[in-house]
Design a protein that fits this description.
single chain, 106 residues, mainly alpha, 75% helix
């Protein structure tokens, strides 16, 4: 849904603001905020691969088309929402909060 995507975008922006340039710290913080546990090393590695792949997909397909249609926009919000790494992190954030961990009580 649009609301879930917006919240994931805000989540990603928070992580980027708290740990600028430190992807591992962003991932660890995301896990703490979403699940209240640190990620395993395998979860960190899988997330790093996911972010790299998503970033490339976004760069290759979404951003060029959006840049052409939004070339006249210069506000900060537009620039942030079009950044491939921010969008990739937002995608990961959306996956975290949409996970089955929230469906069952352990």
């Amino acid at each position: 849904s649009l609301l879930r995507a917006q919240q994931a975008q805000y989540f990603a922006e928070r992580l980027l603001a708290e740990y600028p340039g430190n992807v591992r710290a962003q991932l660890k913080r995301a896990w703490r905020l979403a699940y209240d546990v640190p990620p395993t090393e395998q979860e960190v590695l899988s997330s790093l691969v996911y972010l790299a792949e998503q970033g490339e997909q976004i760069r290759a397909h979404i951003v060029p088309a959006a840049s052409k249609s939004d070339a006249h926009k210069t506000d900060k919000t537009s620039a942030i929402s079009q950044d491939p790494q921010t969008l990739a992190l937002a995608s990961l954030c959306q996956a975290l909060v949409s996970a089955n961990r929230f469906l069952y009580i352990e």
